[in-house]
Amino acid sequence: MAALITFTTALARVRQHWGAQVSPSTTVGQVAAAVGRAARLNHAPVVEAARPARLEDRLDSLGIQPGDRLVLVDHNDLGQPAADLSGVRGLSIAWPGGSAESGGRARLSLGASQPDSAQKPDLDLRGAVTGAPLPLTCGVLAFESSSGGWSVTRTGDARLSLDDFDLPPGLPVMLNLQSTLWVAAPGSAEAVAVTLTLGELAAGGGALPVGSFELTAWLADESRPLTLRASLNLPLPRLVGGLASQFPYPAGGHIHPYVLRLIPAQARLTDLGAGVLLYAR
Known about the structure:
six-stranded mixed β-barrel, six-stranded antiparallel beta sheet, mainly beta, 281 residues
């Protein structure tokens, strides 16, 4: 007879989500406070680490421990760009055939992907390049916390010109409120125009410290939780389908299961590992 496990579950809708590049020493408690401020809550929310589960999994392969929860998350509201929880000033980037937002990131690579490589720069100009190909990375845009602005640094053999100034390799040059970066492949006279526009300065005092750790945080509303007792052999598709009669699944919703684990407020992000998703409620 298969062993049984008892756990709670709920249906969650992500109503706000954030991205940021913050200091690795930032604590979970600091993130909770920042989420509370950003969402204008009158209390600091409860924060859990969220780990996606695959629908082909069974309960016994999820590593659920006492106190963990299995929550079904509606992804419908995740199509909008993530807001910023850090002190990074926003940067809008546009080039022929493409555009991007910094979205809380403090460092963006610029270049062109190659057909035979899975690697891609953050800002991929491949579709805008004619003639000679650009390198995978030919420049880096970086937020400078000391000045509250952004800089651009040439990192390879491609030719980069900021407005009328040809950039020497390895030297960060600060951007104006709006700048045009001309990017040309080595030996090519054809350049791609990249428009760089600084956003508003981040409000002081409420942001997390800027750093190298990539953070994603969600704030969710949940339905009434259910306590289940199920066989460890139970496949997740049967569980998700069986809960359809208990939860008001949204029409056309994209429902994904996540294992949630409560983490101490004093835990540092660096202790949780890269790619951690923090789920607040």
